Every structure is written in C-alpha cells, then in structure tokens.
Amino acid sequence: MTQEQWGALRQELFKTVGQNNFKTWIEPIEFSDLSDGVVTFNVPTNFIGNYVSQNYGDLILHQMTRSGHAVQRVHFAVAANTAARPSAPSATCTPAAAPSATPSPVSETRDLAMTGAPLDARFTFDSFVVGKPNELANAAARRVAEGGPVTFNPLFLYGGVGLGKTHLMHAIAWELQTHRPDLNVLYLSAEQFMYRFVQALRDRKMMDFKELFRSVDVLMVDDVQFIAGKDSTQEEFFHTFNALVDQNKQIIISADRAPGEIKDLEDRIKSRLQCGLVVDLHPTDYELRLGILQSKVESYRAQYPDLQLADGVIEFLAHRISTNVRVLEGALTRLFAFASLVGREITMELTQDCLSDVLRASERKISVEEIQRKVAEHYNIRLSDMIGPKRVRSFARPRQIAMYLCKQMTSRSLPEIGRRFGGRDHTTVMHGVKRVEELRTQDAQISDDLELLRRALEA
Ligand code: ADP
Ligand code: MG
Fold it and tell me: Which of 167, 280, 294 to mutate to test the pocket of ligand 1 (most atoms within 8 A of CB)?
C-alpha cells in the first residue's frame, strides 16, 4: 500500500467515523508499512494505539481488504521520534510569563502550561481553624508550605468531604507563592489532570504535556481518587509522579480516603502514594465546629454590624450540624442572610425555623443496637451479657451507660429502650440513666468514657 492509497482509505474512514473521531484518533496515526499480511501504523502514544486498535482495528482491516490489500492484522507502533515533528517551543510554567494578546503557537503552549486551577482567596492558613481532628494535617501542610528541603514525598492528605482538604492545599499554594516565588507551583484537581492529558493526546502535544509536568517544583493534585479506574490517566500520573520524585520535587496529593482504600487504583500507585507522609483529617468534633463557627461569626460581624445573636445559638449549631464544614458554613451563611433580611435577632427559634431542613438532614440516626455494640466493645464484654439478666457490676455498669447514651442520642422512649435491653421495665432504665448522670460528675473515668463513646458514635 502506498501513502496515496492510505490517503484514499483515510477518506473512507472519515466518512465512517465522523469528523471528531477522525481528528482525535485517525489523523494522528501514520501508515508505515505493509508486509506479510501485517499493516503497521505509527502512533504518537500507546494510548492512541490501543484505542484505535480496539475501536477501529476491525474497520481498518475491513476497508483495506475491501480495497484489495492482503491484510490479516493491524499493528501499531509507538513512533520513536514524535518529538521531531515541528512543534511549539517547550512549555514553561513561570508564573511571570504573561499570556500574549495575540494567540500564537507559543502563547497557546504557555497558556496550557501556566494555568493551574484558580486558588480561592479565602483558603489560607490564617482562616483555617485548627483543632484535634486536623492538627496533624495542618502541621504537615505548614511544613511543606515552608518550601524547605523535601523531607516527605508525597504529602498525602485524606479525609471525608468538607473537612478542609482543598482549603489546606490552597493554603500551601498561597504560602509558597508568597514566600517562595522562585518555585513553580502547580495546583490542579485530578480531573483537570486527566482533562489535560486527553487534550494533549488529541492535540498531539504529549511532549509539551510531559515537559510541563516534569518542570514544576511543587505539584499538587486534589481529589486523586478521581483517576481510579481510568487506566491510561493513571499510567501517565504514575510516570509524572516518579519523574518528579526522582528529581526530588515536592508532591502533595489529596483524596477522600487512604491510598490503600482507593478502589481500582493500581497497586504500584498505591504503594508509591504511601511512601511519604500520609495524614488524615478526622471528622470534626464539637470543639472544632464551635471554633469554626466562632471565626465565621467574627467575619460576619463586619458584614452585618447590627445583627444580634442570642446566646447558645452557636453552641446549638455546633452540636447539631454534621461534621461536614461546608454544610456548617452554609447553614450559618443562610442564617445571617435571613436574619438581616427580616431584621430580627438570631434567636434559637429563628435558627430552628430557618434551618429546619439542614437540621433534619444532619440528624444522626444512631440506633440502640449501635450504642449497645459500641459500649460492649469499649468495656470488653459480650453483647449478650450487656442485654442479658446478669446483675454483676462488670455488666450492670456498661448496661447503664448504654441506656444513658440511648436516652441521650436516640429519640427512643424509656419503655422502648427497656424492651431492647432484654425486656426491662422503663423504671429500670430511668434508674440507670439517673445513676450515670450522677456518676458523670463524680467519676472522671466515667465522664471520659462517655465522651469517648459519644464521639465514636457520632463519627
Ligand atoms: P474538602 O476539600 O475536604 O471536601 P474543603 O477544603 O473544600 O473540603 O472545605 C469545605 C469548606 O469548609 C471550605 O469553605 C473550607 O474553607 C471550610 N473549612 C474546612 N475546614 C476548615 C477549618 N478547619 N477551618 C476553617 N474552615 C474550614
Ligand atoms: Mg476538596
């Protein structure tokens, strides 16, 4: 087959696959050779080769056979020297390089190079409230934000939604931009990483892509769980990651769970991600929620100087709203906006009215069984002994504690609770609850146990 014949075949393919697919997949492949029934095409990357082979291999075979060529197999070879084709100058990501007004190949490449995801001006270390659940993550983030010698690579931050991962990532980026302007910092989400990767493949700019990602000093990738199951993106991420680690460049990654727990993530990537420092943001506790709300209220005071806030409202919200800080902030914002609209003091009643849906949604539905199980576990007794008839202290005390927690944390009535504790009478439950209330103030151990159990159940 000659190049001219391949040209004619391409026209046929164009009609069959449509313009977009043609541009993305067929155009990048080059006819190289046909011998012994094997047709070979050069492709810029393995990814394109695999894709075309899987999706258009049969079609190519069919059309070639139809036009009289003896072909049994289509083969794709990654061209050794795709870089040799004329392309834009290599990418840089110097923040100072302003995009030029007239789009030229150069500025196009630069644009691709420079734009990380925009940073949120509110997400700084100053505005990050530190408490027990996030102090380790905060300390680690501050350490890498100093931009000193790389001590742990990568820094892997993980935690549930709305616990401050993105906030901390942005804070690091801000800090580095301010104090280490000499460093190229690139922050983006894993989704954007994939998008750029695919775009580079399509535009045949893989060399630029690789060069860009290998030329940063600090690479920050948010929500890395997104690439799980996306094989070619994972592959590219893995190579980028290794290249940077080899150069001793800092990498900071976030995810919604620990590396080992991300499903459909290649094992070699998991183990790479675990190589550095892995820290998690724990679900917020009452104190942290209170701290965050107080700092938010402070900033609202400037915005709504006349607004009155009744005692206890902030505590109520910290207690009742779930661990997700985004939800907490949203609730407060709505409350202030509503109160200023109607020109009334923020009372408990107004709060409950205004936020009834949020409060309902974040009502934790903790079951009696859950409490019984947790308490039995905590005191190392069997569930059957907790519920059963034995009255020895070592079973009776945990039983009373479980009853107390059921009364506090569920909406069950005393008779209902009694029924679930082996059919006990409601007066027995009442007695148990009273006893624990007394002990709570007298016995530090019991008060600690209660606090621990409450936290564990609320988490
Ligand atoms: P994630 O990325 O973990 O889902 P974000 O970083 O987007 O969560 O945080 C959600 C919201 O909660 C943001 O507005 C963020 O500023 C705020 N937030 C989370 N944790 C804190 C904290 N410790 N102090 C102040 N604001 C916080
Ligand atoms: Mg986030």
Answer: 167
Specify the ligand 1 atom closest to the Cα of 256. Answer: 3
Residue 250 CA to ligand 2 center (angstroms) comes to 20
- Measured from the Cα of 223, ligand 1's closest atom is 2
| Amino acid identity for residue 418 in this structure | G
Confidence band (pLDDT; 50, 70, 90) for 239? very high
Index of the ligand 1 atom closest to the CA of residue 134: 23
Bond from prior residue into 118 cis (ω within 30 degrees of 0): no
Distance CA 401, CA 435 (A): 9
Residue 100 has pLDDT above 90, yes or no: no
Taken in order of first residue, the domains within the chain and their CATH numbers are: 3-92 (3.30.300.180), 115-280 (3.40.50.300), 286-361 (1.10.8.60), 368-458 (1.10.1750.10)
Average pLDDT, the chain: 86
**C-beta contacts of 389-393 below 8 A and 24+ residues apart:** 389/422
Q: Are strands 30-35 and 38-43 parallel, antiparallel or unpaired?
A: antiparallel
Shortest-distance Cα residue to atom 14 of ligand 1: 326
Closest ligand to Cα 281: 1
Q: What is the pTM of this model?
A: 0.62
Q: Residue whose CA is closest, atom 20 of ligand 1?
A: 164
Average pLDDT over residues 227-242: 94
Q: Which residue among 224, 256, 325 is best mutated to probe the pocket of ligand 1, counting the most ligand atoms within 8 A of its Cβ?
A: 325
**Residue 256: is its pLDDT beyond 80?**
yes
Q: Write out the two tokens for 105.
A: 């190949």
User: Atom 13, ligand 1: which residue's CA is nearest?
Assistant: 326
The pLDDT of residue 19: 76
Q: Where are the alpha helices (DSSP H) in 257-392?
A: 267-273, 286-303, 313-320, 325-342, 348-354, 356-361, 368-378, 383-387
CB atoms within 10 A of CB 171: 23
The protein residue whose alpha carbon is closest to atom 19 in ligand 1 is 164
Cα of 284 from ligand 1 centre, angstroms: 11
Rounded to whole angstroms, the Cα distance separating 419 from 312 reads: 35
Ligand 1, CB within 6 Å, residue ranges: 123, 127-129, 134, 159, 161-167, 292, 325-326, 329
The pLDDT tens digits for 104-132 are: 333 333 343 346 788 999 999 999 999 99
Structure tokens, 325: 């800080």
Q: Is the pLDDT of residue 42 over 80?
A: yes
- pLDDT band at 80, cuts 50/70/90? low
